[in-house]
Amino acid sequence: MKLTWYGHSCFLLESAEGSAVFDPYAPDSVPGLRLPPLTADAVLPSHGHADHNYTAGVTLTGRKPGFRVIELDAFHDKEQGRKRGANVIRVVESEGLRVAHLGDLGHGLTPALSDALRELDVLLLPVGGFFTVGPAEAWQIVRELKPRCTVPMHYRGPGFGYDVIAPVEDFLQLAGECTRLDTNRMAVGDYSGVVVLTAKNHA
After folding, report:
1. 110 CB contacts (<8 Å, ≥6 apart)?
2. Which long-range contacts (CB under 8 A, 24 or more apart) does 153-158 make?
């Protein structure tokens, strides 16, 4: 199974049982990033905001993916969705591996969410704050879930991202050691700890 990061919260997951795009963003919705044309068996937006729900940017193959998708209800804020709405967490199970995309999670984990998110091979985790959990809350989630590998997302990087969200370095100060890859692509199961990917599709 492979993951490719297109900046912000958008990933392409490819496995022997199918492919899916998480949270594609609309043109001009994320400063400094341009989403390339993508093709997949499924598109999985976490919520309806333009920077996560550009389903028109993904060409569907018409094939039904064979992997299992678990959907977990959560919120975009700490006020039960009253401020920014609902957020869907998804766990994809394929090739004996588990990958969780937390979308724009805006609160700490409930006991039910914590139980459902155990034994993850990769946790795709927002860390930038303001719209989502911030660095300290994100690190607490990592400490609670103990995933094999954590990939931070939804942060401000060099030349991209929203001014109001934190850079990934704020999260890394808490996490300590990490692996930085000079690529936007990784094989699930090849890495452990915190892995920082490099976006390659700057506008």
Report:
1. none
2. 153/5, 153/8, 153/9, 153/11, 153/124, 153/125, 153/126, 153/127, 154/8, 154/9, 154/104, 154/126, 154/127, 154/128, 155/126, 155/127, 155/128, 156/128, 157/7, 157/32, 157/199
Average pLDDT for consecutive 10-residue bins of the chain (203 residues)?
Answer: 97 97 96 96 94 95 96 84 86 97 94 95 96 95 97 95 96 93 95 94 77
**Can you say how many angstroms the Cα of residue 164 is from the centroid of all Cα atoms in its chain?**
19
Count of domains for the chain: 1
Decide if 202 is inside a domain: no
Residue 201 falls inside a structural domain:
no
DSSP 23-59: S---TTSSTTB-PPPEEESEEE-SSSSTTT--GGGEE
Q: What is the pTM of this model?
A: 0.95
With tokens 């963003």, the residue in question is: 25
pLDDT of res. 202: 79
The per-residue DSSP string of 149-188 comes to: EEEEES-BBTTBS-TTSPBHHHHHHHH--EEE-SSSEEET
* CATH number of the CATH domain containing 162: 3.60.15.10
* Residue range(s) defining the domain that contains residue 185: 2-196
